[in-house]
Specification:
Blueprint: H1 2-25, H2 31-53, H3 68-89, H4 95-111, H5 117-123, H6 131-162, H7 173-176, H8 188-221, H9 229-274
Helix pairs in contact: 1-2, 1-3, 3-4, 3-6, 3-9, 4-6, 5-6, 5-8, 6-9, 8-9
Length: 278
């Protein structure tokens, strides 16, 4: 119980760190923005603490199947940190900010071709945006996309070399997939495979859909505010993080379905052996 409480507190602190990172790194953060960030940080910390301190599942999936959530959280934290470093570098340049900006600019330039997600994100900017704003979006989108691809590669490597998710013993479907109802009808394996395909498909389409939604919603809610650096950071981070997260979820659910299928075969084979005459 004590170990669970300390683990929940550590996770809550990391959530707070993630949310307040842009405010800590960016210059000239207004008092109103700081208050909103503090409120969101408290809410996020409370959600993470009560989720992990409880013995029963809530909303977070694969809670007891590391490194799934650690990779997803780490990729989002690194994305937000590096984007904040890039934005800070335009006011207070440093060796680290120049290096990260150069890498993001190179990746953004390579991925900036007609029809690419990076080009669509650049086109989501308002027509009043300056050349500097377009260049900034290209750098931020390139860096975010690179981190999402690297995190996805690390997850695939963990699947291959770590025998995930049953590396640490038994895998509890109820705790690790609390939003999946195995009694809803139909074969569990077929439903898991179907959900896996849907998640992978949505993850593939989101980098193209999100810029289109931002562009379409500009008439109702206003265009993407490039002057609000924090809004730009979170928008680009979500644009890169959500697709890779759905890719990971789809691959993970497919892996769970395969694991259940293998267990079934072993059980059926053992039952057939037990019924053989001595």
């Amino acid at each position: 119980m004590v170990h669970r409480i300390f683990g929940a507190l550590a996770r809550a602190a990391l959530v707070v760190l993630l949310i307040i990172t842009p405010s800590l790194m960016l210059p000239e953060v207004s008092a109103d923005t700081a208050q909103v960030v503090a409120l969101v940080a408290v809410f996020g910390a409370a959600l993470a603490f009560f989720e992990y301190v409880s013995a029963y599942p809530g909303l977070i999936e694969f809670r007891d199947a590391p490194p799934f959530n650690r990779l997803r959280f780490g990729s989002l934290l690194i994305t937000v940190f590096l984007l904040s470093l890039i934005m800070r570098g335009f006011t207070y340049p440093s060796v680290a900010s120049v290096l990260v900006t150069a890498i993001g600019g190179l990746i953004g330039y390579v991925l900036d071709f007609p029809g690419s997600p990076v080009r669509l994100m650049i086109q989501a900017l308002p027509h009043t945006a300056t050349l500097r704003d377009f260049e900034l979006m290209r750098i931020a989108a390139g860096m975010s996309y690179l981190i999402s691809l690297v995190s996805l590669c690390f997850f695939l490597i963990a699947l291959r070399v770590g025998y995930w998710p049953a590396r640490n013993g038994s895998f509890n479907v109820w705790i690790n997939l609390p939003t999946f109802d195995p009694t809803a009808g139909g074969d569990v394996v077929a439903r898991l495979k179907r959900d896996a395909r849907i998640n992978i498909l949505i993850g593939f389409l989101l980098p193209f859909v999100i810029p289109a939604v931002l562009h379409s919603a500009s008439d109702l809610f206003g265009a993407l505010d490039v002057t609000s650096v924090q809004s730009l950071i979170w928008t680009v981070a979500a644009w890169a993080f959500l697709p890779s997260s759905l890719f990971m979820r789809g691959i993970a659910m497919g892996r769970v379905a395969t694991m259940i299928e293998m267990k079934r075969r072993e059980t059926y084979a053992r039952a057939d052996l037990d019924h053989l005459p001595a």
